[in-house]
Specification:
The chain is of the alpha/beta class and 517 residues long. The protein is built from 15 helices and 19 strands. It holds the Pfam family FAD_binding_2.
């Protein structure tokens, strides 16, 4: 193993085996690149679970300018318009590129794109594959292409535990496999590790996605941005399975409605009704449940008898639970689905640490702002991975010295963090609940336990939520229910987050002590 690893020195290292990581690796060809995947390819990637599709202005009645307008409206004032414009303009070409790689997108009988409608889109612009299996089909094609590509060295079952940094520059990756720690000497690293859903009890993400890339970046000294903006999907299947199966927004785009256990359609009077932005729908469902009601998605009339044909994945898991969507309402509830925040990067995916890039959900490009527009995430992952690849291959390699592998940090376990974040940073937040979360997370983040890294990212999210005293997009404070006149992105470092948390914990300790004396 040592000889093999030493032979990989000075190659770019991509950490993460989802759509963004796979696409970045493919786009770097023919330059030799190393791709690290903690699990077998596709086993723990959120991309695999994506049902909705890719948003792209492919229709005759559509245009990237309309797509941009919808994206900015959903982003609630925090989108970077220049970045968003460039990304949505590149989206149609990205769909065509995936098709050339073998992705079997759904087509009309005449061969044209079959385009779906999702919330807050003004046009039918969602490109699907196998109905509700878009992520699975994209991953199938990308995995096959990666396995065929001779320039990609794929290391499955290898987990990155820390980045080696000197003078704010990447110098290597400390990783582990099933047998021992190992060091890959490199000056170029791409983080494509996915989201943070595994930090919460109720999520549509694989449990193994709990912000590992954000931890690697934060401990390396990188700036993170907009961490408080967590998108809750309003219609996760309300059952015991974790991750929670998703009932894609496209079902509502086909005419399904939300009802409670009395049969009342409670979104009817809202602008956009069931196709209002996700944060609005999620809060409405959350409040209905808080009032003691169960909530259901009623697809009995639309799409009705065509449900199983149009949504075979959803139909299969519903039937396993004894539900036929053509005749029975589907029980749903909000669940953590997507993280708008992440590692702060520029349009080429470069972070504040030299030699460190990020793409996909782990990055914060400025496309999503405070609230991701439906199906913009897979599109962003594909488009930005290509730009990251161009930037990485054009970067200087720098000088390296061989290093000996040292003891890595322990394997992470987010189980202790999930109940804390779920209680304090749910769909509705308020100061005291956030502070209780910070007080619980702070000692875990400063420990040397398996909970340390998950607690650290949870703490940074909580500090961001505590500092943003307004409600905007995916961040809703019941004690600050209005948005401030101007929208300002947040930026936070590990040192800043720990310092703020220490002040909050110290203030609470002093307050408690004085009350008892």
């Amino acid at each position: 193993m040592s000889t093999e690893i030493s032979a990989l020195a000075n190659r770019p290292v991509i950490i993460g085996g989802g759509a963004a990581g796979l696409m970045a690796a493919l786009q770097m060809a023919p330059e030799p690149v190393v791709l690290l995947s903690k699990a077998p390819l596709g086993a723990e990637a959120s991309s695999l679970w994506a049902q909705g599709g890719l948003a792209a202005a492919m229709g005759d009645d559509d245009d990237p300018a309309l797509h941009l307008a919808d994206t900015i409206a959903a982003g609630a004032g925090l989108c970077d318009e220049a970045v968003a414009r460039r990304i949505v303009q590149a989206a149609p070409a990205a769909v065509e590129h995936l098709a050339r790689l073998g992705v079997a997108f759904d087509r009309r009988p005449d061969g044209g794109w079959r385009l779906g409608l999702e919330a807050a889109h003004s046009r039918n612009r969602i490109v699907h594959a196998t109905g509700d299996g878009t992520g699975r089909e994209i991953m199938r094609a990308l995995i096959a292409a990666v396995r065929r590509c001779p320039s990609i060295t794929l290391l499955e079952g290898v987990e990155a535990r820390s980045l080696i940094v000197e003078d704010n520059s990447i110098r290597g990756v400390l990783a582990v496999n099933a047998k021992r720690p190992l060091v890959i000497d490199t000056t170029r690293v791409v983080l494509a590790t996915g989201g943070i859903g595994g930090l919460f009890l109720d999520s549509t993400n694989p449990a193994g996605c709990f912000g590992q890339g954000l931890t690697l970046a934060a401990r390396a000294g990188a700036k993170l941005s907009d961490l408080e903006f967590v998108q809750f999907h309003p219609t996760a299947f309300d059952g015991p399975s974790r991750p929670m199966p998703l009932v894609t927004e496209a079902v509502r785009g086909d005419g399904a409605i939300l009802i409670d256990d009395t049969g009342q359609r409670f979104m009817a009077d809202q602008p956009g009704a069931e196709l209002a932005p996700r944060d609005i729908v999620a809060r409405a469902v959350w409040r209905r449940r808080a009032e003691g009601h169960r909530v259901f998605l009623d697809a009995r009339q639309h799409p009705g008898a065509e449900f199983a044909t149009r949504y075979p994945v959803i139909s299969a898991f519903c039937k396993m639970a004894g539900i036929d969507p053509a005749t029975d309402p589907i029980p749903v509830r909000p669940a953590v689905h997507y993280h708008m925040g992440g590692i702060a990067v520029d349009i080429e995916g470069r972070s504040s640490v030299d030699g460190l890039w990020a793409c996909g959900e782990a990055s914060r490009t400025g496309l999503h702002g405070a609230n991701r527009l439906a199906s913009n995430s897979l599109m962003e992952a594909i488009v930005c991975a290509q730009w990251v690849a161009e930037s990485v291959t054009g970067a200087s390699r720098g000088t390296l010295k061989a290093r000996v592998a040292t003891a890595p940090p322990p394997a992470s376990d987010s189980s202790a963090v999930r109940p804390i974040l779920s209680k304090g940073l749910g769909v509705l937040r308020e100061r005291h609940g956030i502070e209780r979360a910070i007080r619980s997370l702070y000692p875990l983040a400063n420990s040397s336990s398996a909970a340390s890294d998950p607690a650290l990212i949870g703490l940074m999210i909580a500090v961001g939520a505590w500092q943003r005293e307004e409600s905007r997009g995916g961040h809703f404070r019941s004690d600050f229910p209005d948005a401030l006149p101007s929208a300002v992105p947040s930026s936070i470092s590990l040192a800043d987050a720990l310092g703020t948390a220490r002040d909050i914990v110290g203030t609470e300790f002093l307050s408690t002590g004085s009350a008892q004396s």
